[in-house]
Every structure is written in C-alpha cells, then in structure tokens.
Amino acid sequence: MAKYQLVLHGGRVVDPLNKIDGVYDVGVVDGKVAEVTPALSGAEAKEIIDLHGYTLMPGVIDTHTHIRGPAQRMIAKVGVCTALDMGAGEQVVQEFPERGVGLNIVYLKTVGPWAGEIPSETEVAKHIDQAMTGGAIGVKIVGGHNPSTPAATARIIEMANRTKAYVAFHVGTTETGSHLKGLLEAVELAGENSLHIAHVNSYLRGLIKDPLDEVREGLAAIEGKKNLVHESYLAIINGTGGRFGPDGLPTSHVTRLNLKMGGYSVDMKGMEQAIFDGWGMVQGLEGGETVMLTGQAGVDLWKARNTNVSMSFPVNQPQATFLTAVRKQKNGKFVVDAISTDGGSTPRNVAVEHGLALVRYKALTLNEFIWKLSTAGASMLDLKDKGHLGVGADADITVLDLERGKAAMTIVGGKVVMAHGVIYGKGGTIVTTPRGEAYVKAAAEANGFKYQVVHPEEMLIYTKRQGA
Ligand SMILES: [Zn+2]
What we know:
The protein is α/β, with parallel strands linked by helices. About 30% of the residues lie in helices and about 25% in strands.
C-alpha cells in the first residue's frame, strides 16, 4: 500500500509560523501533512502532483465572507480553504449539501436589530443561545445596514462576552452610522469586552473628514487594544442591498449613504439613475456565479426583483484599503489582524490577487501576506491544525502562481477542491462549537458532510489579552 495518499512535489513551500521557505515535497496521509522534506520517493505515493514553479502556502482562511448561493464555488476558485460567514446562521448548514465544494465553513448568526426599546438581558441571551445551538460560533451585529441603539448594541456585546460566544460588529448604531464615528463609538461600546470589528477599511470612506485623516484616526482608535480583533478587505466596491421599504427609502442605511456619496437622490429615481450610470452595481447570476450588472440590464433586474437585490457601490477609499492592510504597530505587529474578502457571493473575492499585488509592490512580504491571509485566521477561529504546514497540520494548502498573481489550486484536507479554475470538490466541513455540535452532527450525518468542533474561548478574540 502507498505510504502517502498524495505527494505535492517540487513546489516552494512558505510557512511563516514554522519558518519554512524552500523547495520541498509535502507528503499527505489521512488529510494531514505527514512530511515536509526536500525529496520524497514518488514510488510511495498514490498520487503525485508536480508543482514546480508554484508556491504552496497554508490554506487561505477568509475571516469575513457571506456564504450564500454560489459563494462557496466562487471563493474556492480564488484559493480560500476556510471561510467565516458573517451572519447567515443555520442557513449555511441547510444549503451545504447542495452548495458545498469541499471547504471548511464557520458561521455567525445575525442578531437584532433593536432600534427602539432596549432588549432585556434574558431576551439577548435567548437570541445568542439560538445562534449557538444552531451551530454558529457566535453572533454578528449588523449595525451600519440596520442599526440597533447604542445601549442595545453594548448589551449584545456584553452578553456574548459573558458566555464566550464570538461577537462581530459591522459598526454603526441609531446614533452614528457605517463610518468613522461608528468605528470610534464601537470601541467605546465594547469597553473592556472582546469584539471583532468587521471590515475596518469600510468605515474610512471620507464621509466625516479627509480620508487619510480618517484612516489615521480610525487605526489609532483600535491600535494595540487587546480586546479587539479585526480584518479589512482589499476591494473598492462594497456590498449592500438595493431593497426599498414602503417609506420610499432604501432599507439599508449603508445604501442611503452610498447614493449620497455618488451625488444621487436617496429615492427610487436616484437609485435607478445610479444603476443606469454604473455607480450602483446589481448582482445577477450567470453561469452559476454572481456577476455585476449595470446600465439597463441592472435597472431591469432591480425592478424585476422588486428592488430586492444585492448591490455594490465603488465607495471604499484606496487609502483606507491599502493602509488597513499594511499598517503596523511599533512592535512590528499589524494594526489590523487579518486580510479578508467580505466576499463570497459578492464578486470581490480579491484577497489573494490584490494581496499578491501588495507583495509585488513590496508593501507586504510574502510571509506577511501568508500571515494575514492564513495564520491570523487560524488563531482567530481556534483552528490549531490550520494556518501552518508543520507535520500534523491539516493538508489545507493554497497553491499560488506568483507569476500570474493568483491562486492556481485549492487543496483541503489533502483533496483537490479547485485546480486552474475548475471545481472538483464536494461536501466539506462545518466548524461549530460544543453548543452547536448536536445540531451540526445530525445534519452532517444525514447529508454526508463532515464537522469539527472548536472553542470560542480559545479564539483570538478571547485570547489576545494573554498575548505579549
Ligand atoms: Zn460583510
């Protein structure tokens, strides 16, 4: 019998955690890295993949995605092995049998909004408990799009901390919004409590001050705070909704801001013109994946769906995108923990491509790129066998084509999920906590996918304080 189920032969292996950078063969047994040595005997392998000229990194862990519809295909194509969904809850599990392409998926569940009366502690605890028993690792506060009051928001953060549930926040309350003031407010609302601040770059759009001043102030507010974890993404387009309510306004407050930023009136007419002009991009489906539609095609789809479409606007400032990705503290650690995509079904899964552009530009070293796209995510999600390629690590590997600046292959648990743009994977693994295990296990057994249990109290959001 072959000793290795798979040998990845002749590629450059870069693993910052284990300080490895060189040409090695990687032997895989039972989905784990069994050997990383200069030359393995091919005779001992069931399958060999020749990776001369390619670079192998620990699999990309995307710490901010939206796993709906075609999202898993789309992120697998760009090298993502593991993704944290920001808010879909058990919908992820329900779609998994049909949509899974072999990736590891972790998810949060949206709570709120509570825009009026402050919910009681019991009420909030009940919602957090529902999220957790439904397999989520914690909750997402939608803030910006559909805000709660500051008091309600603080209560959600506090209650999540009490039971060590994960808690992420798209900043903004009824008093602020999805901008610098919302970010500063979020830091205050957290107080001493732990909090994941979602997509830091997206609040620094120059709505309050000059964008560069906003970046300085925003990063200074979070720098060195050990109760906060965060990510930022490298796309200029955002993600929001095109839906209008009976009051004739977009239901998302972010969308209202986006129309204003483009100089459009905040009403149906303004939206129609924005889409027609290409300022507002409507998500349609083509070839089983999401595409952006503008012009008449965009307007038609938006109307055909009674305005209920996902949309993007080109509102992120390059200064913020760039600096939130590369800025470091005096001690050499990054101010923002990780680079994410905030993609998935929104076609802006550019973390690898744009991240490698930063490497080419020498704004990040390759080691730093890998740290921010994989190693950081592993500690954020208590995935101790991921984020590195030491012996015993999960054989989750993103194969990079540095020449083209892209991911060439996505390998998860020693199985090829994607190679050169073609998807081969099926099923996958849902990552949950002890509180969600019963629910996820039942679904996994009924539908033939795998699951894994992690512990929120072991995640960076709760362990950062102990770090140096
Ligand atoms: Zn998001």
